[in-house]
Structure formats: C-alpha cells, structure tokens
Specification:
263 residues, alpha/beta, TIM Barrel, 3-stranded parallel sheet, 9 helices, 14% strand, globular
C-alpha cells in the first residue's frame, strides 16, 4: 500500500479521466489520496471527490500562497467558515511562495500565520508550500511551534541543513517527482534523512517523475518515486511502502476515516 499525501486530482486536467486515473493508481497499490485546497474556486470540485470516492479521497482546507492577493482576507474568511462547518484532515496547502511575485509577501506571511493558528486550535496538521522561502518558513514554524503543531513540508527540495531543522521541528518531508530528476541533487540531500520523516506525494498534475517528466503527473506515478527512494536508501520497495504509509497515517491521525462531507 502507498499513500499519495499531496495530489490535486480535482483540477480540470483530470476532468476527462478522473475515475480512470483513480483506478490506475489503485492498480499500482495507491489506496488513499490527500487533496490540498488552493482557494475558493477549487473547494466545490475538491469536496465532490470525497463524495465520489469516499474511502479514498480526503480533503484539506486552506489558502494557497499564490492565491493571496488584494482580497486575501475574504478568501481567509471562506476557509474559516469551512473549518467551522466540518472536519478536515489538514490545513493546507499554506505557506509562502516568492518565485512568481513578491508583491504580497507580507500578506502571505499574515495568511500563513493565521492559518497555523487555526490548525493549532483544531489540532490538525498543516501542509506547507515553501518556494524560495524555506528559511523564512522554518523561522516562522520555530516561532509558532507548540505540542499541537505538526505537518508536512510539501515538495521538499532544500538542503541537508534545512532538512535537519525541519526534522528537529518534528515535521515530515514530502518527497515527490523531483527525487527522480538527474541533476536535482535531492537524492544526496535526503540520504541521511530517517525514513520515519518521509512521506510520498505526487503534486499531480505537476512535477511528474522520470520517465514522465514534462507530461501530466498522476497518482499512479508515485511508484517511481518510491522505487527511487528505495534505491537511495538501499532498502526494498516493501519497506518504503510500509514506512511511508505509517508516516502518512501518523500525520493525518485525526481523519483516518472519511469525513462527513458537507457539499
């Protein structure tokens, strides 16, 4: 069994073959799919996946940093409203993204810290998006950390020192297709990261692993990430499956069963 801890299967890229995509993944041993929200425009399609696939799909709630614009307070209010309506497996994906636009950096920080506070109140994990902002986010987590705060640094591509800091904060590293990229260097970065600190993800439809790089990613391809991780760690694929599945279940402990979906 494998778990895809981060996939956007509700996006339009899967409108023509969503059911078939789920079935392909299940045929490869992927049994659960965790869905991070983006903003108010994606909530309906995300929650519909819980209705259509109630034993497989689990929704998060949050405001993605790239959706933090002038109206971010309105977007946060929508997130808060949903968090009060029903349980979610995590608050995500949230964080800071300085790759495309730094205009709303301070607003991104405010939105991130606000959502961390909600996660602590609800005692659910956070799923962090950190692009060109990893040191900033690590510092924020250090300031906000308490016994209730846990989660995943999604799409980790940082340094060995940053990985060590994240582990010391009792967070997991989300490892996806970048691990298979020849010149990414992630294989060397995580060689000393304990397996009990790693979860697998696709971020589909983005960041496809080799040999599908440049094409649409899907959850079935997580097997290629698992195979590469087994190679890096010098263990069998079964151990990778057991260990990363255990880690995912530990992180999403509050919602191991399907939520009662309000849709």
């Amino acid at each position: 069994m494998l778990i895809d801890t981060h996939t956007h299967l509700y996006l339009s890229q899967f409108d023509e073959d969503r059911k078939e995509t789920i079935e392909r993944a299940k045929s490869e041993g992927i049994r659960q799919f965790y869905l991070p929200n983006i903003d108010s425009s994606t909530i309906d399609s995300m929650l519909k996946m819980e209705v259509d696939f109630p034993k497989e799909c689990f929704a998060m709630m949050g405001l993605h940093p790239c959706s933090v614009k002038e109206n971010y307070q309105e977007e946060l209010a929508i997130v808060k409203n949903w968090l009060e309506k029903r349980p979610f497996c995590a608050l995500g994906e949230i964080g800071i993204d300085l790759h495309w636009d730094k205009t709303f950096f301070e607003n991104q920080k405010t939105a991130f810290i606000t959502q961390i506070g909600w996660a602590k109140e609800l005692n659910i994990p956070i799923v962090i998006h950190a692009r060109e902002s990893l040191d900033i986010i690590i510092e924020i987590i250090k300031n906000e950390k308490d016994e209730k705060l846990s989660g995943i640094f999604h799409c980790f591509t940082g340094t060995a020192d940053q990985a060590k800091e994240i582990i010391e904060l009792d967070f997991m590293l989300g490892i996806g297709g970048v691990l298979t990229y020849k010149n990414a260097g992630l294989d060397k970065t995580i060689i000393d990261v304990p397996l009990d600190r790693i979860v697998l993800e696709t971020d589909s439809p983005y960041l496809s692993p080799v040999p599908f790089r440049g094409k649409r990613n899907e959850s079935a391809y997580i097997k290629h990430v698992a195979t590469k991780l087994a190679e890096v760690k010098g263990v069998g694929i079964n151990e990778i499956s057991v260990r990363t599945t255990t880690n995912a279940k530990k992180i999403f402990r509050k919602n191991s069963l399907p939520c009662t979906t309000v849709y």
